[in-house]
Amino acid sequence: MAILAVNAGSSSLKFSLHPLQGGQVQPSVLTGCIEGLEPAGAPEMVWSFAGQRQRQAITGQGDSPFQRALASLRSLLADLEGAPPIRAVAHRVVHGGQAFRESVLVTDAVLERLERLNSLAPLHQPHNLAGVRSFRQAFPALPQVACFDTAFHASLPDVASAFALPASLTEQGVRRYGFHGLSYQYIMDTLLAQSPRGRGRVLMAHLGNGASLCAAQDGRSCATSMGFSALDGLMMGTRSGTLDAGVLLYLMEQGWDHDRIQKLLYKQSGLLGVSGISADMRRLRADGSVAAQRAIDQFTYRVVRESGAMVACMGGLDVLAFSGGIGEHDAVLRAQVCDRLGWLGVKIDTERNALATQDSVQVVHAPGSSVEIWVVPTDEGRVAAREAAHLLHQGDDAIAPAPVLEMAD
Ligand SMILES: Nc1ncnc2c1ncn2[C@@H]1O[C@H](COP(=O)(O)OP(=O)(O)O)[C@@H](O)[C@H]1O
Ligand SMILES: CC(=O)OP(=O)(O)O
Ligand SMILES: [Mg+2]
């Protein structure tokens, strides 16, 4: 038996298959991604199974690219020799709102409530939920579980989650939720298992396409840089991060409508907007132009600045952990951030840092550093799979026994 974990985004569908052994979720035996799902894209499925990496173009006409991608994934799952049968599908859903503070079995009513949150995460939520709907249709006999990015931050104290707005708005749910929670859960579990200081003052940096920071004490989120939506906090690939709300008022006065502002904030800003070149850190590093360096410098500065805020909230720092595509692979970024946090006693080991590019957990602080520095390759799929397994294990009455993969035509 295995759990299929799914992360359906605007242009990609990431998946991983996690076997269950004695009720425990194991590392994935199959990981893959279907990219190019945007309207005019050329979808392609890339996957690794049994040590072999393969790719396949997704062809065909008629259905949407997402439907075709799903059909290809179904065929792949059905054809893989030796892959364990699927017991449930675990979906990453970025926003659980006020109602969902932990993972939940998806029903029509749950989907309807989650769809009301679409406008709070327009780059993610509608795609996550379209994914859930498609999988429900394609695998009607399998339980589908929604696992929320916001859930890890349910522990935020009021002072951290409330904005300085009239209380009536806070009561309506206009507050900081925080995101990347599946990733933070994974990093936290790793640190709790491997570092004696994991229960101390921990700063986690998830630096990927979307980027955020999370401060945790005693294993629980106590401050985070993303807010009501996934726009707040750090500069990102195409999002500005924290922005003076006066800029929005100004743009509205200039006649910008909602859709134009939304596009600016979600798709045209961040590394892409500042550089005018790319949202992709690798490309910017390779570019070498002044504009590319300006964007990288700004990204680095914002990580440092927000880190200071997180550390201040905790009153100090015991462990700093880097994750996400940039955090895991960009040694220069890690070195610069750590150098600038040197006043906190953060001291990175240059050699260990430069070598920490493999996909494994690495400890990269220098002897004498008063802060542990970790690089933790995140695994949001594994956390989602664990959540689904946990719900299955609880023997929730709502989860009917449906032991094997069953596909609808
Ligand atoms: N070797 C590398 N050096 C610098 N940046 C990298 C490297 N590998 C990946 N990245 C960056 O990681 C980012 C994507 O992060 P990732 O966590 O994979 O994104 P997503 O949010 O889509 O899961 C991109 O900006 C990419 O350029
Ligand atoms: C919430 C968020 O920003 O997610 P991602 O990093 O996948 O874009
Ligand atoms: Mg991500």
Automatic annotation (TrEMBL):
Mg(2+). Can also accept Mn(2+). The active site is at 149 (proton donor/acceptor). This is Acetate kinase. Keywords: ATP-binding, Cytoplasm, Kinase, Magnesium, Metal-binding, Nucleotide-binding, Transferase. It is found in: Cytoplasm. NCBIfam families: ackA. Its main location: cytoplasm. Belongs to the acetokinase family.
